[in-house]
Amino acid sequence: MASTAATQYLKAVTDQAWSRSQFGAEAKCNYVTNNISESFNASINKARGLSIIEMVDMIRHKMMERMDHRRAFGRKWRGKLVPKVFKYVQTLKDIEQYIVRRSDDHRAEVVGPDITCVVRLDERTCSCRVWQVSGLPCVYVATFITRLRGLDICDFVHQFYSLDVFRKSYAHAIGPMPSIDIGFMLMFHLLSALQKL
Q1: Coiled coil where (predicted)?
Q2: d(C-alpha 148, C-alpha 105), whole Å
Q3: Is residue 104 a contact partner of residue 148, using CB atoms and an 8 Å limit?
Q4: Confidence class for position 58, pLDDT limits 50, 70, 90
Q5: How does DSSP assign 118-154, residue by residue?
Q6: What is the mean pLDDT of residues 140-146?
Q7: Sign of the torsion formed by the C-alpha atoms of 70, 72, 78 and 83
Q8: pTM for this model (two decimals)
Q9: Could you tell me which of 11, 23, 106, 146 has the fewest CB atoms within 10 Å of its CB?
Q10: Positive or negative torsion for Cα 18, 20, 26, 32
């Protein structure tokens, strides 16, 4: 039974803030958490007591190493998709209980255990909205694709999850920098040389 207080609270908040079905379809992400900000805050915890220059330098070090680490992963991986998404796509193979009622090569009704969804491959939409919001084909889309000959479900995953895009995202390196002490040493030597003139 739903809590009255919780129901009233959620009704007062816009649907787009809490209901996954109301999320926009521009950003492709299959989960929403604040873990990235918590992880970042935890990683710079030691840097908080440093001067601003030292803190920024420590953050730069972490980013430089993280980017290099991700590039190394990208070089090792093979295929069209990043491994986690490829593994997800492979789980969509058990779809015997779904019925496909084709309209044409691009449109169909897919009947599942609980609901019937309309899939439009040409528009990359499903009435359940999972495909549009996450960029990952849902079970209804996967069912339709597997019933059509010659199609690869990996081709229907949004490009954001492709290995190519992953590699491009981490292609640029953050350059190394000498320590701040070298700058002071250079300045000292320059001033010494100027005094001798």
Answers
A1: none
A2: 8
A3: no
A4: confident
A5: EEETTTTEETT-HHHHHSS--HHHHHHHHHSTT--GG
A6: 94
A7: negative
A8: 0.70
A9: 11
A10: positive
